[in-house]
Every structure is written in C-alpha cells, then in structure tokens.
C-alpha cells in the first residue's frame, strides 16, 4: 500500500459501531437469520479482545469521543485499565435476543455461533482473548468449546460450566413474576418484581446488613422495609432498559447452558467470587478441576457477591492484568 | 378433694382444644378483641411447655387419639421425643392473624400479649418453658422480654432478636408477589409465587444441588427447570392452607420484630443452623452475646437451612433434651 495513504488509515475512527448478518442454526429453535450489533474500540492493528457482560449488558462498553455516554463496563475499560482501548482493540456485541424481538429459547452456544460468524466479517481471524463476566463467561466457555480456533485465551469471571440448580430455581421464579405481571398490566410490574428478586441474587446479605439495617416503617398500614426504596429504583431502571421478552429468554439461556470443561482446551483464567449466591465458589472450583492444567483460579472475597465485577473494578482489573499480559508490557 | 372423685380426674382428656377471649392493645394498631385458639396435650398436672412454630404453623402440634391428623410438629412431639406429651403438658396456639381475618400490622409483641392473656385463663401461672422455632422463636423472645414472670426457660431455634435486612427484603418482595397476583386473579397465583420464593429462603443450594441437578426441559418453547415441579407443589399446598392476608401480615410481623437481648433475663438455649439463609449464624451469635451468661449456643450444620427444625428432627430432639431437662429424668 502506498505510503501516501497512511494518513487516511490513521484517520479511521477507533470506535466503530455496526451490525452484520448472521445465518444461525439455533440449538433449540432451528434456523434463524439475525443481525448482530457490535462495537469495536481501539487501534485497528491492535490485538483483539472480546469483552462480554451480563444478560442486560450490550455492545457499548465505555464512552469515547464518538459515543461519550457511559457503558456497562465503564469502570473496567479505559487508559488506566488493563482493558485499555489504546493497547487492545476491544470488541463487544449485543446479545442475540437482547432487543426482545426473539421469543425463542436461546442457548449460550447460539451466542458463540453468532460471534463465530461475526469475526470473519470484521476481518478478525482470531481473538487474542475473550473476557466474559457472568453470562459473558458462559458465552466465552461455549466459544472456547465449540470454536477453539477463534481465540487464544479465555478469562471467565463469575460464570461456570453449568447453572447451579438453586440459581436456576431462583431464575425460574423470576420468569414467573414476569408472566404473572403480564396478565394484568403489561410488562412493567412483573419485570420490575423479577429484577428485584434478581438483585437479591446478585448482591449479598453482608451488603444489605451494611446499608439497610433500620426499622421498617408503616405506610398506609403496610410494612415497608428499608431496602424497598433501593429495590424500587432497581426495578424501575431495569424496566426502562430491557424488554421483558429479552429478560425471559436470556434468563432461560443461563439455565440451558452446559459446557463440558474437558472440551475447553485453551489457557483459561477463572475468577471466582467467594460469596456469590448465583455461582457458588464450589462450582467455579469444579470448573477449574475440569479444565485441568490449562486453568488458573483466582478467588476474590467481596460483599458485592455476583456483582463484584461491576463494583470491585480495581481488584478485578488487577486480576485481569495478570491474566492478559497486555501488549507492550514487559513482564 | 374426696378420693372417690379421682377416677373422674384421670378421665379428663389429655388433648384439649378451645379458645379464649383476649383484650389486646396491638403495638401498631391499637385495641383489639380477639379469640385465641389453643390446644393442650398432656397430663393436667405435668409442667407446661409452650411450643410455637413458623408463621404457617397452628395450634395442632401432633395427632392424638382425639385428633389423629398429623400436626406441624409431628416429628418433634411424641412418646419417644423430648417433647413427650406423657411427661409435659404441651400448649400451643393459633397465631393472632393466622385466620386471615386481621388485616392490620401485627407485631411479635402482640403474640406475646395474647399468650400472656391466655395463660391465666387456662389456670397456668407459669410455663416451665417455651420452645419456639422460626417465628415461634421471635414470639418466645418477646414473651421473655415483656412477660418474664410467665416462663422459667426459653429455647429458641432459628430465630433471632432482629430480622436480617436481607431476609426482610426477600420477604418484602414476596408480599409484592401477593399484591401483584391479587390485582389479576384473586389470591392464589401471587400467594403461590410468594411461597415458592420463600421456599428458596427456607432451603439451601446444597439441597437443590442434590435433588435437582438435571438439564431443564423445553415445554411449549419455554424452559422449565427441574425444581419447578417441587416448587409448584409447595405453592399449591400453601395456597390451600394459608389465607393471603394471614401470610402478608405474619410476614410483616417478622420484619417488625425487634427485641433487645439484654431484656431477656431467663436461662435461654439458642439453637442455630449454619447454612440458614434467613437467619444467619452471625445474628444468632450476636443474640447469644447479648444474652450473656444466661445463654447457651448450640449450632447445627444442615443442608435444610432454615427448615432444619422440620427435617432434622432427631438432631433437634437431641439438643432439646439437653436444654429442657425433661421431668422425671435423672441427669
């Protein structure tokens, strides 16, 4: 390529949004043509890291000059972080089903299939790594098991090879709350209640004890406990940003998830949170045992439980740094 | 009394049901005239033990010749048990509000007040002991704090001096499920869902892992997880035996509960279950610390969590035996 064209290349924006067509065969629901929304942030020639979050995450990791609004991974992505879009090219996507238009059973393997179709369309032959938190960890395990040539390294945070049966029961009841509400009000009330129950699974008794240890009040002859303001706000925020169908189908997707750890043959870092009520430490340890010598286990104790990856961003970042060997760093 | 009358005295049935009028002043709702249903089982001259259970318990502890149907404490009461109705006179009652007719905030102190009015009407000057499980433990602590002359000894199982803020949030959401259902269907659907969520708090991940570790199934394109059959049955059973108003008001009552342990001046045995998700061991330890030298702590590890008192009846019985010094036993 002529040297005269070089300035054009450097003028290419380092934060790109788009979507690509995917022809999928869903594991439980058959053929589907879908569009997969993605974002890319970072130099075009940098090694690519895929970053995937919880079921309510989306392709927007963090603000840039082009799209300044904060993203779901705002505290984890930035110039001072291991996930530095100056060093890596960070790729992320909207999960299949996240728009609420897909009222079908969705499997984590379907998400991995969508990624496998997205990468070549973006000219990415192989990911330097995949960093998945919560649901993103499940998707990463599926990608590594089903499409091992597409990534060099995997980091899973707070997500295992199976859903824990107790957590599955908890989610099933949240889906029932949505269904109960839908028969009366439309989506908002049941979805808010489902999210409120989910918040209890994302957080811990330690945090609630710290924040909400006060006597309840009586309002119109009904007891209202201190945590209800917080839970109300959490429910309302969620209703504003996630369609009920998306919630139900992605919640189901966690319960459909199953990966045989022996099928994951990549170097894998497993970051577990002691105190996570959705993904017990014992399941993360079992995952690591199944992965064998390919795996490294790092354990964090946090009063934020399952949500530690969103709240303990300094500590998570430090663990990522040792897992990912950022480009350009000597170690 | 002439000796000739003795046979009449022994013919008095040892299992008695009845109700007495109580003129109460509810802590949060003012004056109320109520009828308090009770049962007495055991010899009229035996020392009296009050036995109190969870919010859905009632006065019927265990079957006898007169009322053979099994009671909620069936595994804890009997000739081979510490709670032997041949040695003790066992007293129990229907909780205030349990009939669903009282749509008012009810406090555990109101239950204690009802007991304080019931005892003299039954000719009982003082209880030899009070054994309370779960909600019954809260009522026992209130009775000991407010009416210390009425009992000699207290045994509390899986209930503390305060509700844990996380457990309160969990219950508040269950009450919301009831309210959501009531606007559509009447009581059944929301109450069943509330109970199902409650079951998750009564049991543990360990038990669910043991019982429900199988892949989910797809039914009409929806995911159904293995625990749902169990939860459906639990919800349906509950709807058949507890009015929604009773559930809501007694659930609230737990969240209104507060006792200063320093006010409890009786010998007290505290039986805590490690793994209880509603009443964390730390709160039981704090209770014991507040009680000081009057208290003995016994800790049970059980995969049944909060429900251990209903499921680990042999182990609970052994702990009761050492706490209660059954009459007629040499130690």
UniProtKB/TrEMBL annotation, chains A, B:
Which residues catalyse the reaction? Answer: 134 (nucleophile), 276, 306
Which organism was this protein described from? Stenotrophomonas koreensis
What's its top-level EC category? Answer: transferase
The record's section on SUPFAM superfamilies has: alpha/beta-Hydrolases
Q: A GO biological process this protein is involved in? A: homoserine metabolic process
**InterPro entries, alphabetized:** AB_hydrolase_1 (IPR000073), AB_hydrolase_fold (IPR029058), HAT_MetX-like (IPR008220)
- Sorted UniProt keywords: Acyltransferase, Transferase
Report the Pfam families cross-referenced here. Abhydrolase_1
Q: Does the keyword Transferase apply?
A: yes
Q: Does the keyword Cytoplasm apply?
A: no
* Residue intervals of the AB hydrolase-1 domain: 47-312
Name of protein: Homoserine O-succinyltransferase
Q: What is the lineage of its organism?
A: Bacteria, Pseudomonadati, Pseudomonadota, Gammaproteobacteria, Lysobacterales
Mention one GO molecular function.
Answer: homoserine O-acetyltransferase activity
In terms of superkingdom, the source organism counts as: Bacteria
């Amino acid at each position: 390529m002529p040297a005269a064209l070089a300035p054009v290349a450097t003028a290419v924006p380092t934060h790109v949004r788009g979507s690509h067509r995917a022809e999928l065969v869903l594991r439980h629901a058959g053929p589907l043509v879908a569009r997969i929304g993605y974002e890319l942030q970072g130099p075009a020639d940098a090694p690519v890291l895929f970053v995937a979050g919880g079921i309510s995450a989306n392709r927007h990791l963090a603000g840039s000059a082009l799209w300044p609004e904060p993203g779901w991974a705002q505290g984890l992505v930035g110039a001072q972080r291991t996930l530095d879009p100056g060093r890596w090219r960070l790729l992320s996507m909207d999960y299949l089903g996240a728009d609420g238009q897909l009222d079908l059973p969705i499997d984590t393997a379907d998400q991995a299939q969508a990624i496998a179709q997205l990468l070549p369309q973006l000219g990415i032959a192989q990911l330097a790594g995949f960093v998945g938190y919560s649901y993103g960890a499940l998707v990463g395990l599926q990608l590594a098991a089903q499409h091992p040539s597409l990534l060099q390294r995997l980091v899973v945070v707070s997500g295992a090879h199976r859903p824990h049966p107790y957590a599955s029961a908890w989610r099933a009841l949240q889906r029932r709350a949505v269904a109960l509400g839908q028969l009366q009000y439309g989506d908002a009330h049941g979805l808010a209640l489902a999210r409120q129950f989910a918040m209890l699974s994302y957080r811990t008794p330690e945090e609630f004890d710290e924040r909400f240890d006060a006597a309840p009040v009586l309002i119109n002859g009904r007891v209202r406990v201190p945590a209800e303001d917080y839970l109300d706000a959490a429910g309302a925020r969620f209703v504003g940003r996630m369609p009920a169908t998306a919630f139900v189908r992605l919640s189901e997707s966690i319960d459909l998830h199953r990966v045989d750890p022996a099928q994951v043959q990549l170097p894998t870092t497993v970051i577990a949170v002691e105190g996570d009520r959705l993904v017990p430490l014992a399941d993360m340890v079992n995952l690591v045992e199944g992965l064998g010598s390919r795996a490294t286990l790092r354990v964090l104790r946090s009063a934020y439980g399952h949500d530690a990856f969103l709240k303990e961003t300094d500590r998570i970042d430090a663990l990522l740094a040792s897992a990912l060997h950022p480009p350009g760093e000597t170690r």
